[in-house]
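Consider the following input, taken from an annotated entry for 4Fe-4S Mo/W bis-MGD-type domain-containing protein (Roseicella aerolata).
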Amino acid sequence: MTERRRPRRSLTRKSAGALADWSVPRQLRGAPDKTKAAESAMSRGLRPRLEQADKVGTSICPYCAVGCAQLIYAKDGKPIHVEGDPRSPINQGTLCPKGAATFGLMLSPQRLDHCLHRAPGAGEWRRVTLDWAMDRIAHLAKRTRDEGYVARLPDGTRLNHTLSIGSLGGATLDNEENYLIKKLFSGGLGMVFLENQARV
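Applying the prediction step yields:
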């Protein structure tokens, strides 16, 4: 019988302890120090989440072309928190849900930090170097462009264009990057189909 009663006594003690630590009864009794009246054992042990940061850097949100400024808090060279920069006239310290997820994007174990290649007809991806991937992309882009390149019409009208390759830009590209893309792809490679994800 006594063994069965022990858990009840322990539960009663825990309940009494939780009630004694609960701030509402102290506030209702009219404790003289309102700050102390609202404290609990748990809140007294809480520390500011950014207290551990030994460095704060600035960045721009990578998700769209708005360009919201961010503060990156780091400890020992690793990010521990990301928030909006209140000094920015664009976002004034706020971030949309995508921007607020930047921290998860940076540290997600599922984020790829290397290049993968799957050969035509292959079922498996293989890891390749960035140099190899860039050379491969340049080679295929040049080959595809050359295969469909039209320098002149039969009547001699100069065209210098290709319909066999196109570009779909992302919303994270700013005006300057889009300007250079237009000059390179349209003027340099003769691409006709240029579009941007921000308009689609």
